Each structure stands twice: as structure tokens, then as C-alpha cells.
Amino acid sequence: MHKSKITGLGFEVPEKVVLNADLEKIMDTSDEWIQSRSGIKERRWASEDIATSDLALGASKKAMEMAGVSPEDIDLVIVGTLSSDYFFPGVSAQLQDKLNLRNVAAFDIKAACSAFVYCLSVGDQFIRSGMAETALIVGAETQTKLIDKTTRGRDIAVLFGDGAGAAIIQTSNDDSGILSTHLHCEGKDMRNLWMEGPGSAPGVWINNKQAIADGRLSPFMNGREVFRNAVTRFPEVIQEAMDENGLTMDDIKLIIPHQANNRISQAVAKRMGIDMDRIYSNIHKYGNTTAASIPIALTEAFQEGKIKKGDHIILAAFGAGYTWASAAIRW
Ligand code: ACO
Description:
Elements: E1 4-12, E2 17-19, H1 20-26, H2 31-38, E3 42-44, H3 52-67, E4 76-80, H4 91-98, E5 105-109, H5 115-129, E6 134-141, H6 154-157, E7 163-171, E8 177-185, E9 193-194, H7 209-213, E10 220-221, H8 223-244, E11 252-257, H9 262-272, H10 283-286, H11 293-303, E12 312-319, E13 323-330
Parallel strand pairs: 4-5, 4-6, 11-12
Antiparallel strand pairs: 1-7, 2-3, 6-7, 8-13, 9-10, 12-13
Helix pairs in contact: 3-4, 8-9
Bound molecules: acetyl coenzyme *A.
Acetyl coenzyme *A (ACO) binds next to helix 2, helix 6, helix 8, helix 9 and strand 12.
């Protein structure tokens, strides 16, 4: 069984930069509140004419170019998103078409902020089993189209941004690659971070005016509960990845966490007894881009020269579901 390795990375964000000062004009908030609670200075918002698959396409082309693979080489597409272009089918179908790929398997995974690590894990299993040799793994969102951009939705609206990140994974013939992945879900608390509609549960379809008036067709977050769970699950799942591979924190060059909130990353660093320079952060530029945040952060960390051949890194995620996940990688 051959593990997979990441051979290409790329990301794409919309052009439109939204500063905290811009948000002050449309809702009751302040740059000081946003920066002190989250570390976010700006984020990108997709304009009306940009769909999730457009950002996914841009990121995928860059990852393919870095890996030196052509459309014929790709034999699997997995996209993580909660803001797909259409109710169905998934973004993976549009992406497969836009890239002119062969009629290979393409599907979406809806695991919110953990989606990219979930997709990476599934892709890795396909490669380990011999079902695929070259897979395109994407996290992409235009979720700011879903959020309530008024004072009522401000706790969510200030945190989130749009973007896409992509990775090409291929069969590894040496000791580098994805060493292990660890996926978890605890559905019982899903109501602390969710968007009820439009959905098939009673009362949350698009024809329910009351549900719309009550804000049930926009994301909801119980910030304190999310914070409390995130700062427990991140260290747990990072430790799980190290234990599985007989690694200690001294062996880890960099942790690339889901960019949820800088205060969450600071609390994780404190709990794990490490300095913040071991935990990558670019949330100040893009906000929380849900499924896209890890591949965007991974791409930037690589481009900045922070990851070199032979380094051990850990990807770690926590988000709606709750879901949480990690991947241990030897570069
Ligand atoms: N601007 C100004 N004020 C705001 C905003 C805003 N954008 N949003 C909320 N507030 C107000 C609230 O209405 C509340 O006002 P009140 O006291 O008059 O009722 C007050 O700010 C609460 O602020 P804090 O005292 O800082 O409250 P708390 O300490 O609970 O922090 C926070 C709230 C920042 C949301 C915190 O719980 C948190 O960081 N949670 C994590 C949430 C998060 O980052 N999620 C990431 C997305 S999910 C994921 O990716 C896993």
C-alpha cells in the first residue's frame, strides 16, 4: 500500500477586499471589536457573478500547474464546501466540467470547516487502495452570500470570508506523504453552529416566510460554546496525529490549523505549551474561509518557505457538526 503525497498546491480569493471599516458602515460593529476578538483585519467577498466553482477552478489550475499534471492525469475529484453553486449536484461536477476532466469520480463532502481534511483523508484512502493515482482535493466557499450582513448577523458576518484552496495528491514512492488522518464527528451539539435552511426538515424550506423572518435561513453560531469545544478538540486531534506516528511536538515544524479565529489558535498554543510561531496564521487577511482555510494557509506557508522537504507538519480542523480532524504529513 502506497500512501499519497501532496505534489501541487494553489489558492484563489475574490478581488473584493472588505475591511473592518467597511463593515462598520453596514452594521453596528468596530474594527477594535473584530480585531481583539478574532485577529481579522480584512476578508474577501465574492461578487454576485462569482460562484464557488469559479474560485475552485482558479485554485485547481494553480495546483495542477505546480504538480505538472494535465486534466487527463486526474482520476478523482473531491470538493469540500458548504456553499455549493447549486442545491445539487455538487461543485465537484461543475469543476470536473470546467477543467475538461475525464468522466472520473467527483463528489462533494459537507463537513464545514473540517471538510478539506475529510476530503484529503478520503483521497488518501483511494490512493492507498490503488483506486486512484492522482486526485484533486479542493476546499472552496462563497459563503458570504449566505450570511446576514446586518447588525443581527454581525457575530458571524465579521468572521467569515470567501476563497478556495486546492491540492493535488499522488502516489508516493518514498517516505514523504500523508502519514495518517484522523476524522471525528459529534452530532449532538450541531445546533451550536449551523444553518437550518433551506432544508428538508419541517419548517425550513424557502417557502416558509416565518423561518426567513426569524433568521433561520442564515448561519447561526453560539460563539462561546464553539470556542469552548474548539480549544479542546484542536489539541486532542493534533495529539492523536502525533501519537499515531510516534512524534512529539519537538518533531513538528508547523501546525496548519483551520483559520477559525486567532484567539482560538492562541488558546490552542497555550494548552499545547508551544509558541504561536509554530501555529500558522493568515486569518488577518482572509477571515475564516471554512473549507478553504486550510488549503489556503498550507499554500501560503509553503510559498513563504515555511515548509521544507522532510519537515513534519500537522493539519488540524474543527467546525460545524461538530466535526474535527487532523492529518500528519512528512513533506
Ligand atoms: N461587533 C460588535 N459587537 C458584537 C459583534 C460584532 N461583530 N458580535 C457580537 N457582538 C456583541 C454581542 O452582541 C455581545 O453584546 P452584549 O454583551 O451587549 O450582549 C458582546 O459583543 C459579546 O462580546 P464578548 O463580551 O467578547 O463575548 P464573548 O466573550 O462571549 O465572545 C465571541 C464572543 C467573540 C464570539 C467568542 O465567543 C468567540 O470568539 N467565539 C468563537 C467563535 C468563532 O470564532 N467561531 C469561528 C467560526 S466557527 C469555526 O470555524 C469553528
